[in-house]
Amino acid sequence: MRNLHELDRFRRCDQGVIDLYGSIGDHETGMFDIPNLNTRMFLLVVASAGLGWDHVSVSLRNRCPNWEEMEHVKRLFFRDDETAMQLHVPPADHRCLHPYTLHLWRPNDGREIPRPPNELVGTGKAA
After folding, report:
1. CB-based contact 24:11 (threshold 8 Å)
2. CA atoms of 33 and 40, how far apart (whole Å)
3. How is domain 4-111 classified at the CATH fold level?
4. pLDDT score recorded for residue 108
5. 113: which DSSP letter?
6. CA-to-CA distance for 105 and 86, rounded, in angstroms?
7. pLDDT per residue over 33-81, tens digit each?
């Protein structure tokens, strides 16, 4: 994950964040209001690192984030050379604290996320 101080202009520093988390965060944790690319809405992003994982949750008040919004957050919070993923776990493992939240994950303990060969993903040129 990037050094999150690079995103301090978006960092939430209000008392509610301090009450919830004990601080406003640091270089690998924090809560952020990220402007939506095409609307006046803000994406609420909570970033953390622990137990071998970088984790970013992305939510909106009235709907789930879409692909463009998740890709925008991925580019902001992770370096260009890092792969991050969304997971679809078995229903028995679902945990829902907010109905309009999606998550990005990346192991930060040196493990690489396995990926299928590019030709299985699509035939076009890389974007």
Report:
1. yes
2. 12
3. Streptococcus thermophilus LMG 18311 protein like (3.40.1720)
4. 94
5. P
6. 6
7. 999 878 889 999 999 999 999 999 999 999 999 999 999 999 999 999 9
